[in-house]
Structures are given as structure tokens and as C-alpha cells.
Amino acid sequence: MLERVKASTSRLSSATRSPHFQRWSPIILVLLTTVFILLGATCFYLFERDPQEMTVRKWYMNLTVERRQFARSISSRIFNDTRNLLIIIDREQTERVQTLLVESLKRYEDKLSIVPPSRREWSWVSSFNFAYSLLLTVGAGFKVPVTIGSQIFAIFYCLIGIPLFYSTLALIVYRLISPVLKWPSLTRSRRFVLMLAVFGLFILWTLLIGLCLYYQVLNDFWLSIFNAFTGSLTVQIPSPVHITTCGVLFLNFAATISVSLLLLILLVSLSIFFPKELLLQETDKAVEEKLERLTPPPKFQVIVDEAGESKLTTTQ
């Protein structure tokens, strides 16, 4: 059994070192991460759909009961705190007064901007946003799964998904920037300038996200800038009370681009201080392989001397 495991491990290791796998590994990881997020979104949707529906129904039922009880309490106090007087005098009048009180309470609740639980809080798109934000490690404290099965699934989902997501993102960024960093003309000082340029691009991108939040979601400029920077640094995103489901999806994708820029800054910084460990060894090896391919094989010629003996010599 142990020998089979060793043989399977060796075959897997040799397969991962093959040129074809290294060439297609970013695409394979992107597809694997996408399928993983879709699977997580579907599981969260199935776990939380019915409990959320029951929560919404219970909330509205309790609200209706509280309104009725409060209206009865107020109607009895209007008439010197006599509970049965209205019923003895005119029951229809009592019901009419209580109905008017309930309507007044509804208008008062509208002025208070009370936000009821939404039936779409755990729709499939919202579940996709939640699954995506978990892998992105964006703070989503405003929304947590309530069922035990969903909570247990979320733990294993994060343990597997977060390394998968960030390793995929880091590999894509490395594959895109490594040909540029291998340029012979890109000296250490120019790499430092490149790092500053990428950092400036990160700041501009974050400011652009803040402006989108300011004009589309929030009316406070500095609050929009704060939420843009915290979202770009995977700290938190605005509450869903102020932003739609599509807006949360946009912020998740925007935060992904921001994280990619931060990884790019990290890679350029490592190329400044550790160029040999990061790039040059692979560069020298690639140059040697290229030279071997370009060097023509030697040509041989058979020469027969006067004694009839043949000799093999190389020709230029």
C-alpha cells in the first residue's frame, strides 16, 4: 500500500513538472477556483434559503402582533385606562380606532427607516457574493450563516478556498510580470521606479472605486474613500443596507484587482532585493536551453587514407 502511494506521488510530481502542465496551470487553477466558488455559492444558497424565509415570515408576524397589542394598549388609555368601556359602548368604533392607530404606527415606522430582513438576502447572487468575499477575506460581519451545517461548511470552505484563491491570483500575476522583470535592461533602479508606478496605479484605482461609491451609493465623500481603501485592503466593504447586490459584486471584483496590484507590488519588491532567487536562476537556465537549441549539431565526414583505413572527422 505504501509503495502504491509513493508511486502515485512520484507520477503526480512528474506530471506537475511537465512543460504542458506548467504552461496550462494558470488556466487550470482559474477554472478550479471558479468551480469552487460556484459550488460554495450553491451550498450556501441551499443551506440558508429556507431558514431565511422562515425568519422573514416570523419577523413580519411579530411586527403585526406588536402593532395590534400596542394599538389596544393606547386605545384603552385614551378612555381613562378602562379596558372594556369601548367594547361595551361601541365595538365597531373600538376596532376603527385601533385600525387607525395601526396605520399611524406603520407611517411612524417608515419615518424611522426600519430595515426588515429581506427574502433576497440569501438569493443565489447574494450567496455568490458571500462565497466570493470569504475567499477574498473581505470583512462580511454584517452577514453570517445561521444554520449549523452552513457554518461547518464555511469553515472547511475557507480552509481550502483561501489558499487556492490567493495562490491562483499570485501565479497569474507572476506569469504576467515575470517576462517584464527578466528584461536585461531592467536594472534595480528601474525596478524600483516600476514598483512606485504600480503603487501609484493602486492609489488611482482605489480613488476611482471611492468616486464610484460616492456617486452611486454613498453621499459622503470621505466615507466613500474610506470604504474604498478598506475594501481594497480586504478589510471590509459597505453594509448591504447602503448597497445593492450587484454593487457588492462589483466591489468584490474591484477588490480582486486591488489585491492583484498589491501582489504585483510585492513581486517587484522581491525582484529588487532578491533578484537571483526569484528570477535569474530561471533566466540562466532558459538561456542555456535556448543556446542548446540554437547550436547546430556537429557534422562528421568519413576520410579513407592510402592504407584503406577510414577515419571519422568533424567538418566546419
From TrEMBL:
<feature type="transmembrane region" description="Helical">
    <location>
        <begin position="148"/>
        <end position="172"/>
    </location>
</feature>
<keyword id="KW-0813">Transport</keyword>
<feature type="transmembrane region" description="Helical">
    <location>
        <begin position="192"/>
        <end position="217"/>
    </location>
</feature>
<keyword id="KW-0407">Ion channel</keyword>
<keyword id="KW-0472">Membrane</keyword>
<dbReference type="GO" id="GO:0016020">
    <property type="term" value="C:membrane"/>
</dbReference>
<dbReference type="InterPro" id="IPR013099">
    <property type="entry name" value="K_chnl_dom"/>
</dbReference>
<keyword id="KW-0406">Ion transport</keyword>
<feature type="transmembrane region" description="Helical">
    <location>
        <begin position="27"/>
        <end position="47"/>
    </location>
</feature>
<keyword id="KW-1133">Transmembrane helix</keyword>
<feature type="domain" description="Potassium channel">
    <location>
        <begin position="120"/>
        <end position="173"/>
    </location>
</feature>
<keyword id="KW-0812">Transmembrane</keyword>
<dbReference type="GO" id="GO:0005267">
    <property type="term" value="F:potassium channel activity"/>
</dbReference>
<protein>
    <recommendedName>
        <fullName>Potassium channel domain-containing protein</fullName>
    </recommendedName>
</protein>
<dbReference type="InterPro" id="IPR003280">
    <property type="entry name" value="2pore_dom_K_chnl"/>
</dbReference>
<feature type="transmembrane region" description="Helical">
    <location>
        <begin position="249"/>
        <end position="274"/>
    </location>
</feature>
<dbReference type="Pfam" id="PF07885">
    <property type="entry name" value="Ion_trans_2"/>
</dbReference>
